[in-house]
Amino acid sequence: MEFELLKRPRRLRLSQSIRDMVRETSLDVKDLIYPYFVVPGQGIKQEIKSMPGVFHFSIDKLIEDAKEAYGLGIPAIMLFGIPSHKDQLASQAYADDGIVQRAVRAIKDVMQSLIVITDVCLCEYTSHGHCGVIENCYVDNDKTLELLAKTALSHVKAGADMVAPSDMMDGRVGYIRQLLDREGYVNIPIMAYSAKYASSFYGPFREAAQSTPQFGDRKTYQMDPANSDEALREIQLDISEGADIVMVKPALPYLDVVRRAKDNFNVPIATYNVSGEYAMIKAAAQSGWLQEKAIVMESMVSMKRAGSDMIITYFAKDVAKWLTIR
Ligand code: PBG
């Protein structure tokens, strides 16, 4: 048969050098944000069962580990606190000597240029495990705003470089922005968990943070996984309230949302590669069913390709190492 093949896409895949030349997406250590769980006490580095390789750290041990992360080139960390005591109004979330506040001060004392982002939410601090104040079995939006803003302010006063509200209450970005501005912190950016879904992929995190709701679920405030127009509305609102960076969470099952966000808005986009996504890869790798490094690197580049400017991931240290020994 006579056949003339003119278009040959395989020409540009002939060698690693050519493939590198036409590569559209790059992954850099500067794209990464590393999350930490900090607990009260001394000398503690305890592995979280459903997240092998992720630990509860006391402040002293956290500093050692954060130094290593920074040494690997990771520019930013995100802090979650597990308090010694939880109550109805999450008082330890906004206490000046709360666990996150103390951790931020201690880190900033020794590492000024590491960017410390604090997660701002109440669920790790409430006895009922919900992200806000409970009134008649419902998370009361407007009463929660004040406590969230107080929490954000106390983190910033302790030295946090950026705050990341993850509660999904309406109006919280604007409320926090106004309080920070009024107190003189006009230059502290807000990274908003804007499109945060009511996802089952947070399971291991809730074990780590002991923050599983004691009744009901988070579906009256976090988003329905079936929706993406709504994600754009949430992002739009957060930007109009003053968000500097917006986030989509979880990451891999929601890359279509990341792409829509990137195409529709002109602000930096973060994606949170959450605990369940981490645990799945770890479990499969431990069983010898997947090659961990290859799967993780492919996942990271996919998040970038979808439009993420930065990635919050428990794999950050591994990725940083793998990027240098490629
Ligand atoms: C706090 C918060 C959660 C996560 C980040 N911030 C848990 C939740 O909403 O239940 C999840 C992170 C992860 O799964 O890695 N609201």
What topology does this entry show?
Layout: H1 16-21, E1 32-38, E2 45-48, E3 51-57, H2 59-71, E4 76-81, H3 99-110, E5 115-120, E6 133-135, E7 138-140, H4 141-158, E8 162-165, H5 172-182, E9 191-196, H6 203-209, H7 229-241, E10 245-249, H8 255-264, E11 269-273, H9 275-286, H10 292-306, E12 310-313, H11 316-324
Helix pairs in contact: 2-3, 3-4, 4-5
The protein binds ligand PBG.
Description:
The chain is α/β, with parallel strands linked by helices and 326 residues long. It has one domain (26-324): TIM Barrel. It contains eleven helices and twelve strands. Helix 8 (255-264) links the parallel strand 10 (245-249) and strand 11. The longest helix has 18 residues, at 141-158. Residues 119, 121, 123, 131, 166, 202, 205-206, 218, 274-275 line the site of ligand PBG. Ligand PBG binds next to helix 6.
Integer-rounded radius of gyration: 21 Å
Largest sheet: 10 strands, mixed
What is the strand content?
Answer: 15-25%
CATH class: Alpha Beta
Indicate the CATH architecture. Alpha-Beta Barrel
* H/E element order: HEEEHEHEEEHEHEHHEHEHHEH
Assigned CATH superfamily: Aldolase class I
Global geometry: globular
Proportion of residues in helical segments: 25-40%
